[in-house]
Amino acid sequence: MEHKGKAWKYGDDVDTDVIIPARYLNTSDPAELAKHCMEDIDRGYASKVSPGDFIVAGKNFGCGSSREHAPIAIKASGASAVIARSFARIFYRNAFNMGLPIFEAPDAVDGIGAGDVLALDMERGTLRNETTKKQYKVAPVPPFMRELVTAGGLLNYMASRRKGK
Question: What is the pTM of this model?
Answer without folding.
Answer: 0.91
